[in-house]
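Hi F.,

I've been meaning to write this up properly since the lab meeting, where we talked about keeping a consistent format for the predictions we share between groups. The idea is simple: the sequence comes first, exactly as it goes in, then the structure tokens exactly as they come out, then a line or two of notes. No screenshots and no reformatting. I'm using this chain as the first example so we have something concrete to point to.
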Amino acid sequence: MPKAFLFDMDGVIVDSNPLHREAWVKFNALHGLETTEAMQQRMYGKRNDEIVEDFFGSGLSPQEVFARGAAKEAIYREMVGPLLPGALVPGVREFLGAHRNVPTGCATNAERANVDIVLRLGGIAEFFRVVVDGHQVSRPKPFPDIYLRAAELLGAAPRDCLVFEDSYAGVASGLAAGMQVVALRTTHREFQGVSLSVDDFRAPELEEFVTAFLAVK
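Output, unedited:
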């Protein structure tokens, strides 16, 4: 069975967290809600339905929860589109190109429309054989479902998958799936349980680690 790479998107492929923060501020203000720093910290790595219910309470119908999440993401896409490909995390395109023969997937709690615009306008869609978004599994990160599904689609055993993550929920998801995790320090600075943490994909130690990972039979 092949070795495989599984990428989260926000904070790993694209440096989008500042834009998500701004989009939530704008969207919440439309509903008369002030966005605090504590709220911003809680949204990292979460699926939109969880964030909306956290911010606005559990009294909304499922349809309204979905509508509010979709409306916020529309704001985000208007912001991120003009910034691509410049908003990609440094070195990610070169890393993907150097390892184009490794089966690679994107596994993210984000909406599929967000994935499509980032991969397309970022010029990196060709590198991803599968995409699993947050609405394709019943349990989002930090549960392992999304990474296990991506591995299944790639035909790779969990132990042969290397996950790239930036959030605590995402790291927990990868580890729960029985995979090794490389953490990108774009959102948090310290992680537990990861095999390596780097600032971005230009780190020399990343290539050394990946070479060793791919060499293990």
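Notes:
The mean pLDDT is 96.
Residues 162 and 210 are 9 Å apart (CA to CA).

If this format works for you, I'll send the rest the same way.

G.
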